[in-house]
Amino acid sequence: MDSEKVYKMSFFRHLYYIFLSLIFFLIVPGIVIYSVIKGNSDVPYLGMFIYWHIFGIFFIPGFILHSSYYVNDRNKTIKIDEFENITISNDYEIVTIKKPYIETITNHHSGIHNSTTWNGYNYSVIKLKNGQKYIITCLIIGIDELDKRLSGRILIRKNHFISTLNYQ
């Protein structure tokens, strides 16, 4: 096992999860702006606008999910040491969870292997033997990395169509 490893949100982790939705919401306005600059008046702006809004409905759950994950993990840092102890710190608290106190780690995964924009979002709930729970989302550490760092201990996987943070 490696020595201590620190995880926190990064720009590239954000971009990895939100990329498809971001491209969709930027491509149509980009086409319209480009057409206006080039003086192309035969582009069906109203039709593009209507289609953009109709298909945009399918991207909204991904944005909502991403936003709630971001709010949950904003300014949070996760540290996993060589003894598989987890330290969670944020602006107002530092909690160290020793390996023997972990009862279960349940991972809630979105998408059920389909092509939705929120497929791949997941979060893990670390439940301690005293009943306390701590949540870590994929914006900080993915399930594969967490599973590897904790050597597959006590990991329960649950799939949901959309894994909102209320499945705790």
Topology diagram in text:
Layout: E1 5-8, H1 11-38, H2 45-56, H3 60-73, E2 77-80, E3 86-89, E4 94-97, E5 102-110, E6 122-128, E7 133-137, H4 143-149, E8 155-160
Parallel strand pairs: 5-8
Antiparallel strand pairs: 1-2, 2-3, 3-4, 5-6, 6-7
Helix pairs in contact: 1-2, 1-3
Characterize the structure shown.
The structure is a single chain. The protein has 168 residues and is of the alpha+beta class. The chain has helices at 11-38, 45-56, 60-73, 143-149, and strands spanning 5-8, 77-80, 86-89, 94-97, 102-110, 122-128, 133-137, 155-160. The strands form two sheets. The protein has a four-stranded antiparallel beta sheet with strand order 1-2-3-4, with no helix packed on it. The two termini are 29 Å apart. The mean pLDDT is 84.
Key features?
alpha+beta, single chain, elongated, four-stranded antiparallel beta sheet, 26% strand, four-stranded mixed beta sheet, 168 residues
Question: Concise description?
Answer:
With 168 residues, the protein is α+β, with helices and mostly antiparallel strands. Helix content is 36%, strand content 26%. Helix 1 (11-38) packs antiparallel against helix 2.
The best one-word shape is: elongated
The count of β-strands is 8
DSSP summary: helix tally? 4
Q: Segments where pLDDT lies below 50 for 5+ residues? A: none
Distance between the termini: 29 Å
Content of β-strand: 25-35%
**What is the arithmetic mean of pLDDT?**
84
Report Rg: 20 Å
**Quaternary state of the chains:** single chain
